[in-house]
Amino acid sequence: MDSQSAKEVDGKSTHEQAFIQAALRCQDKEMLCTMLLPTLLLAALPSTVLAHPRYPNSSDFYRLGCPSTTKPHASQQEQLEVLTNFANEVFVQHNLDEGYNTYAAKDFINHAPEISGNGTAIAIATQGPMLKGGTTEIQRIFAGKAADGTSYGTIHFKGISLKLGVGDIAGIWRFAGTCLVEYWDVATGVYNSTNPIAYF
Questions:
Q1: Helix or strand or coil: residue 183?
Q2: Which run of H or of E encompasses 153?
Q3: Which tens digits make up the pLDDT trace of 55-64?
Q4: Which among 139, 199, 131, 197 is positioned nearest to 164, based on CA atoms?
Q5: Which of 38, 56, 84, 121 is the most exposed place for a label (fewest CB within 10 A)?
Q6: What is the mean pLDDT of the segment spanning 34-61?
Q7: pLDDT > 90: what percent of the chain?
Q8: Cα distance between residue 53 and residue 46, in whole Å
């Protein structure tokens, strides 16, 4: 490597230096360099650059069919407002069509054991009869980020169902911006307990 080339390398990061040095070593083999440089670049990058989060939120926004009423990027406060509005529409007002079609992805991923598939259509069809004639008391709602930067929100509520009785339910949603794209829930019946502050 000549002195001019050495100066070009100085001041670069370790990974940039590795790539530049690889390019300079093969510059007299133009065809081979053209074929190998993309591979050399990838090899020079740190693993943290190549790693992807488990959930690529922005791509899920489009892949899962988020409605036009949502957006792919949002603040924590905006997400909290979305979850509060969603909980009110679905669980308090029992307006499932409005709640799901305004805030949830059309093909959202659903892990709830009582619902047999993904998406808003089957969620609305299954939850409607469960909620009919009953009431819901929202206990708490919060939104925040996990250690990997993924945004989640939780709705904790007391459900009083004519079909299922009284339940203590926590529903966990993953966000892509202001859109609800993935769901889990944990539920139990409410029974007599020696703990005076059990459940709620």
A1: strand
A2: strand 151-161
A3: 445 699 999 9
A4: 131
A5: 38
A6: 48
A7: 65
A8: 15
